[in-house]
Automatic annotation (TrEMBL):
The chain crosses the membrane at residues 49-69, 96-117, 170-187, 207-224, 360-379. This is Putative 4Fe-4S ferredoxin transmembrane protein. The lineage of its organism: Bacteria, Pseudomonadati, Pseudomonadota, Betaproteobacteria, Rhodocyclales. Residues 263-291 form the 4Fe-4S ferredoxin-type domain. GO terms for molecular function: 4 iron, 4 sulfur cluster binding; metal ion binding.
Amino acid sequence: MSVPQSLAIPAADPAVSVHTQPISPPRPGRRGKQGKIYTRETSGRFNRLRWGMVIVTQLIFYGLCWLPWDGRQAVLFDLGDYKFHIFGLVLWPQDALYMAIVLVVAALALFWVTALAGRVFCGFACPQTVYTEMFMWIENRIEGDRVARMRRDSAPSTPAGLALKAAKHGAWWMLALWTGVTFVGYFTPVREVVTGAFQGQLGPWEWFWLFFYATFTYLQAGLLREKVCQHMCPYSRFQTAMFDDRTKVVAYDVARGEPRGALRSAANSGDCVDCSVCVQVCPTGIDIRQGLQYPCINCGLCIDGCDQIMDKLGRPRGLIRFAAESAGQPLAVTSGAATTARSTTKSMPTTTAKGWHPRLWVYGALMVFFTGLGIYVLLHRVPLQVDVLRDRGALFREVEDGRVENAYRLHILNMDQIPHRFRVTVEGLPSARVVAGEVLDVAGGSTASLPVTVQAEAAAGRAGANPVQFTISSEEAADGRDQNLQVRENSVFMLP
């Protein structure tokens, strides 16, 4: 199998002479039987940032569904009643526009971050990365470090080794099941889910989704891990379409590191001592010294590992670091099965690219626009919807005093969480007035139907259909205290 095609970045200055140096493959032992990756734990600023994101995201995910709000769950997606409760806001299917705006803003934010610093979302906030990190932490606590796991897996099975693996998988399943409970708890009140799960009284759909999501988490984070990023996630395939010469990516300083030598055994050796720590800590199993490759998730763990080695050797940090081409920072280039390093004779500068490139401005402007649009639409949202239907049984009726009567049915949806008394008025014809069905009480978050009768003089308009407009407003709106609860709907009034 050929080496994956990487993003080729040329030298910063074509006028400067260029040399090439073959890149050696990773040392044996990085992968075990069947290509299993044994990741080494490391520490450093990027690892701390990753764990910070793990803590923040999981506090939100596991904790948000337990927050009470006005007698109910703070965040609850009630599919049975077609309501999304988000703190004090209740969204209905008619509010799908808000979800569309949220998705657009989220996509633009992802594009903006990717154009600025590559796949940092993948490396720090992607659920696949977050849960894999949690599962690997459990694995390291139970089975031991990388060396211990490799030694145990390469040796014949023993009762002690099997017990450790059973304990690990048991802990994984416990975390996965609690994740499934939490996931279902956003669609069914979580307290009911927990009680029903322990008592065996959940409905069939709750059981299905609990075990489905738990199994999905167990497989993705426990067994598949980096294979999801490499083979299943489409984002890794088209990420380079959002890169340009100012995008920061994890880069190996070829000019400073090559040629490699053990503790500078040769006079012309570079700073890289070929310890392979950068390979051992990589969660996707790549060698960043071979150039930028699509499995790289920009997690920065290879930077932490290399910095630790440089500190021990008393050499400057930054042999591997985040770099951008436009700042004069050449990268190693991978092409097919042959790999070369292309760089200037000087080490890549530590300065960063100045200024934003147009793509960032465009993404940022679109984010601001759609965020502002969402806020504007939300502030002007009317929690009231009315449908006016004419009586299909008769176009009109003539009453005793010579007036003409039309019958309608109003379907009123009160999307507010408190009850309202609504008053119906009509305008458009000089003598038109509501004679029946003028007032209706509607409970909060419910729908009511109201038959309405409208009368007008026979000579008030032309024969046939005459446009009229119904105004439905709460009594608070009629008093000027709540102008939001008022809508107008058009219809027609038939005259002989």
